[in-house]
Amino acid sequence: MKGQKTGGRKIGASNHLNNEVKSMINSFVNAELIEITKRIQELSISERANFLIKLLPYSLPKIIDNRTVHEDFIIEPLTFRIIDKDENFT
């Protein structure tokens, strides 16, 4: 019988293996988040700031380049230099 389903899960039946794997991954991630939080607190101020900067693209929406819409206004990207409290200003 070509084209007819003869086996497998019934429509609407959950995939128990997927649910178990998701549960295991969630448990692992939750345990690691606690450890990561402790390790972040051990970082220097500049290391912590760099870590947060690397995470921002996953948290903030993408900025649209408005130069094509507003030709008279050019928005230049901002550049930040993070200085550790023990570092000298140069």
Q: Can you walk me through this structure?
A:
There is one protein chain. The chain is mainly α. It contains two helices and no strands. The model has no long low-confidence stretch (mean pLDDT 79).
**Low-confidence parts, pLDDT < 50 over ≥5 residues?**
none
* Element string (H = helix, E = strand): HH
What general form does the structure show?
A: flat
Number of helices: 2
- Biggest sheet: strands, sense, closure? none
Radius of gyration: 25 Å
Q: What is the total tally of β strands?
A: 0
Helix content: 40-55%
Structural class: mainly alpha
Taking all residues together, what is the mean pLDDT? 79
Distance between the first and last residues' Cα: 78 Å
- Strand % is under 5%
